[in-house]
């Protein structure tokens, strides 16, 4: 009990953040989401309510539904089953379909609020006693409050923080299970595999890595196999959608296409994105293996995840939830974090104002144009790029790392903490 006391204020503040996120969407929750103009002018859009209707959750089960392929649930199976269970409860509580959708939203928000609180507490535990309060950035920062209930991302956030804590506590099987479940919830935690591999390569701690990867693969297979076997078409919807999806809102590629840039605006974005990501990941690998001191796990996770987001075909407002805890753990310096938060708040406002200006609404009196919108797109790219540059600087100059200045080597590193180097680029070049 005494060990839990320091976490109580953080949990309460995270609960406050979850409540504020609900208040932000009250204009929609009280009926505004039935009118697109009202939804956008009140900045309260959410996927949760409309998808209850559009994915036939009132009558059918995800992946098994007898609906056109493009109406299948386009999420990995853990989220699909979360939607399923909550829709069952909603149908049991309400007879009217509209009332069910409202109940579906409310129950989902409760789950997401709990996920935020759990994620914050896990992040505080990962940060350790010296930096526990850094988790406030995840608990109540403006961008988190605004984006919390757009989609189901907070579930993956809690699983990812659980994975990081389990790895830090050297519980490799649990870390692997949580990682596998996180990947089966939202695909972005797959980037953490690369971070673990690079640090394993540098330290030669192969057994913990392989145990974690085996556990992750096992957990992923256990939750996916029934749907792969019995509902193949529904199961593969997420992967087909991800592959075939064109350039969408928030992505820098949209700017290049809009402005008609040669190559960047005319080429196949799937290929361009993969090449750009591969180049950035190669740079992260060189940095990890060439740094004078082994980087911290959170630093490499942050860089890998930021690279994934910046090169992706879509960059939705809620993706900020992916990055906040890892950005803070990588470099808990308030100035670049605050600058990035301002950029995220501006993007949150800009996307809805921009959509007001797009067909079929075309409300030019209420919305903003291309150039104004793209200032928000590039604001995110630039501010995250600044944070990445500072992290790279900290990796190359460990004396500048504010976490390590407190006498910590790697609070989330687990077997990497205080580990000796076994392989570096310098050792190869000798």
From TrEMBL:
Record localization: Cell membrane
What is an example of a GO molecular function annotated in this UniProt entry? hexosyltransferase activity
Organism annotation: Nonomuraea zeae
Asked if the Swiss-Prot or TrEMBL record annotates the protein with the keyword Cell inner membrane, the reply is no
Q: Name one GO cellular component term.
A: plasma membrane
Alphabetized UniProt keyword annotations: Cell membrane, Membrane, Transferase, Transmembrane, Transmembrane helix
TM helices/strands, residue ranges = 6-24, 107-129, 135-152, 173-197, 209-232, 269-291, 297-316, 337-356, 376-396
Q: Which family does it belong to?
A: Belongs to the glycosyltransferase 87 family.
The UniProt entry lists membrane topology as: Multi-pass membrane protein
Q: Which Pfam families match?
A: GT87 (PF09594)
Q: What is this protein called?
A: DUF2029 domain-containing protein
